[in-house]
């Protein structure tokens, strides 16, 4: 028989606390007003490269879409989140998702990161990144895509 590693009750409770904190945040309620796609797969091409993305939540309205990306963290404070954005490249992720949605014919109205702490008090905070920072990665991201495309062609 295969050994099964079940989630501990403690981890289960922590996960539920994170979910509850996210659902109780006011920005989450704003996103559930239109048609919503949860964890939808998006397939598109950028610079001739087949790409895919999986936004956590896309709210589809008549005037475009709003995107909510959930991030669990140790510290949801503005200072800590700002450091995490740079360290983990959330601005690059936002650029990529925006480009993918644009390629699929959607106008992105808002892109919000919802940071939820992984331990008590399970604080949650919503953040919108500076669009100059997001757009500033375009050249580097495009270069990476073209390098990847070149490597695939040589493979």
Rg, please? 18 Å
Taken from the alpha-carbon principal axes, the silhouette is globular
Q: Determine the mean pLDDT.
A: 93
Strand content: 25-35%
List low-pLDDT spans. Answer: none
> Level of helix content?
40-55%
From the helix content, strand content and strand pairing, which structural class follows? alpha+beta
How many beta strands in the DSSP annotation? Answer: 7
Q: Biggest sheet, open or closed, and with what strands and sense?
A: 5 strands, mixed
Count of separate DSSP helical elements: 6
**Taking strands numbered 1, 2, ... along the chain, how are they ordered across the largest sheet?**
1-4-5-6-7
Order of helices and strands: HHEEEEEHHEEHH
Gap between N and C termini: 41 Å
Give structural notes:
The protein has 155 residues and is an alpha+beta fold. Helix content is 45%, strand content 28%. It has six helices and seven strands; from the N terminus they run H-H-E-E-E-E-E-H-H-E-E-H-H. It has helices at residues 9-24, 26-31, 78-88, 90-103, 131-135, 138-154; strands at 35-38, 42-46, 49-53, 57-61, 64-73, 108-117, 124-127. The strands form two sheets. Strands 1-4-5-6-7 form a five-stranded mixed beta sheet. The protein has a two-stranded antiparallel sheet with strand order 2-3.
């Amino acid at each position: 028989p295969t050994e099964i590693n079940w989630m501990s009750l403690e981890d289960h409770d922590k996960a539920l606390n994170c979910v509850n904190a996210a659902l109780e945040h006011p920005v989450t309620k704003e996103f559930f007003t239109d048609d919503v796609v949860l964890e939808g797969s998006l397939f598109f091409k950028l610079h001739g490269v087949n790409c895919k993305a999986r936004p956590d939540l896309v709210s589809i309205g008549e005037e475009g879409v709003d995107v909510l990306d959930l991030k669990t963290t140790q510290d949801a404070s503005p200072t800590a989140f700002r450091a995490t954005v740079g360290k983990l490249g959330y601005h690059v992720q936002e650029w990529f998702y925006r480009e993918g949605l644009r390629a699929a014919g959607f106008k992105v109205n808002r892109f919000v990161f919802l940071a939820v702490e992984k331990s008590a008090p399970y604080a949650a905070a919503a953040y919108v990144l500076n669009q100059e920072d997001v757009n500033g990665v375009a050249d580097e991201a495009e270069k990476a895509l073209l390098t990847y495309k070149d490597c695939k062609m040589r493979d």
